Amino acid sequence: MDPLDDEDLHQVGSHRESDVASNDSGVSSLLGTEDSRSTTSSSDISGGSGSSGEIPTAVVAEAVVPRLVCPAPCDDGNIGGEEFSVTLMARERCVGRKNKGITWGFTSIIGRRREMEDAVAVIPGFMSCTCDHVGGCTASGSRTSGEISPVHFFGVYDGHGGSQVAKFCAERIHEVVAEEWDKLGGGGDEWRKRWEAAFYSGFERADNEVVTEAIAPEMVGSTAIAVAVSGCQIISSNCGDSRAVLCRGTQAIPLTVDHKPDREDELVRIEGGGGRVINWNGARVFGVLAMSRAIGDRYLRPWIIPVPEVTFMTRSEDDECLIVASDGLWDVMSNDEVGEVARQILRRRRRCATADGSSSPPAQAVADHLTDIAFRKNSSDNISVIVVDLKTKRKRQQRQ
């Protein structure tokens, strides 16, 4: 049996309504003050519009195929004479293997706001299919690429004007995206178009249902960032100013580009449609909304649109973690700051978990700590952070 078959996907999450007490804003000093929280629970689960923002191109390292050089045998059976070489073929497998070994954690707090308007969705195995069928497999035709494996879904929804739309999105978007993906065909080079169409249609359906099901008044809306993680791909769909960042080695790679009203292409689109962007405590559409795309907000159509930008990133063995968060984090911390904190805590907690057999995922410690830092750096918004540890248990143990 492949030892990877026994790896489970662990889930941990915490929703904290109370504020964090300290106001210290130093990132380096906070790294030594991690704490455990009684609000954290854990359990095991076996995983059963074109982008105008510039996203870094995925780097896929070529596999190194070792060669064994030996002295050739002589005619009399003794070793000697010329050397001959034997090529050892590397076993071709998907980067994420069967995608069952990743762990995750999340934290969502009200912060300094009077009302909690953020919502989080973590759906392990929201789809199950082969890596070849998902598309973008780095080992197409291999044994692992043809085995059924889970595709995991992570979503953050930052509401405004109320919490109704954000909560609805957290309950519904992963369902409609999966339904739309099932409706569509297209393999081979068409897999990207299939995912784009599924997210476009899924977000549009959710936006229409907000109206048809009378989910909320027309002045209520929500950003939406949804990320699907397969064995070989990270597929991000963003509508608004929440953000997804991939920590790869020592790099912090943004997978999405914020939809801000003063972003050049968004400003042209808004003003081209007769809208205005007014600087009122930052750039805002008609002086009201600080983002240019969202679900809901029908009173600001056609300037606020529910159309996501979809990007694709091929997974690498160097990937450390994925961070998906609302602007309550990104308003006070840069991508590089978040990446550095995440790497340090992950490595520390992985060592501790290996030594003492701890079952608490390191990803949860990262989510908690980033939330604390954002609050201490005077974030004025709700703060929601999902951290996905992309190193399986086996890989972590090999790195010790």
From TrEMBL:
It comes from the Eukaryota. It holds the Pfam family PP2C. Residues 20-31 have a biased composition (Polar residues). CDD domains: PP2Cc. Gene3D superfamilies: PPM-type phosphatase domain (3.60.40.10). Residues 103-390 form the PPM-type phosphatase domain. Keywords: Hydrolase, Magnesium, Manganese, Metal-binding, Protein phosphatase. Its cofactor is Mg(2+); Mn(2+). Belongs to the PP2C family. This is protein-serine/threonine phosphatase. The gene is LOC104592057.
